[in-house]
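Researcher: I'm preparing a figure for a lab meeting and need a structural model of a single chain. I don't have an experimental structure, so a prediction will have to do for now. The sequence is pasted below. Please return the structure as tokens so I can convert it later.
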Amino acid sequence: MPDRVIVEVDEGLSDLIPGFLAHKRTDVITIFEAIARRDYAEISRIAHRIKGEGSSYGFGTMTEIGRSLEHAVAMRDDGAVTTLARQLLNYLDRLEIVFQPSKD
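Model: Understood. Here is the structure written out token by token.
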């Protein structure tokens, strides 16, 4: 099995994380479909959402991938978009969530 990516997340988000990660997988599928259609507006919307949501949930790497996706789609670089979508999927496949007590 590939190396795990361990991410510590606030336990207050434990109910939201499974659905969030499922939506990110759906986003990857949508990106691949949008590349085939050359629907750069759709990819741009998804990339922007990934960039913002990643940090909100504690997934900094996801935010970086979203930022890179935004740049690649702005350049209309289908190869880079495809590579980044694969990187996001690989990241999701390797994720191991460790819930930490809230710091409130």
